[in-house]
Amino acid sequence: MPLATWQVVLFMGLFFLLLGIVAILWNRREQEGYYDSISAKRDVKEFLTHEPNRSWLGAWLVGGKLFIIIGIALIIVSIILK
């Protein structure tokens, strides 16, 4: 296999891995920001119980996990192609 082929796949895997880590950290920041803004309000029931569940807060976490899985798979493929 040519050197450039597996290097491209390796760099794509590293990019997806980095993107997944950034997405997970972004998710943590979004959740903290959202619940910190709720804690400043008078009605703190949602802050204490986290109900109703806000599914959009977990979207970055799910995307981050998918990016990490894709990144690891691409890194493994690049090692196999080497």
Give the uncertain stretches in residue-range form: none
**Chain oligomer state:** single chain
Structural class: mainly alpha
**Proportion in helices:** over 70%
Distance between the termini: 7 Å
Question: Short description, anyone?
Answer:
With 82 residues, the protein is mainly α. It has helices at 3-39, 45-49, 59-81.
Summarize the helices and strands and which ones pair or pack.
Blueprint: H1 3-39, H2 45-49, H3 59-81
Helix pairs in contact: 1-3
Structure description:
This protein has 82 residues and is mostly helical. The chain has one domain. It contains 3 helices and no strands. The chain is rod-shaped.
Keywords for this entry:
mainly alpha; 79% helix; 82 residues; 3 helices; single chain
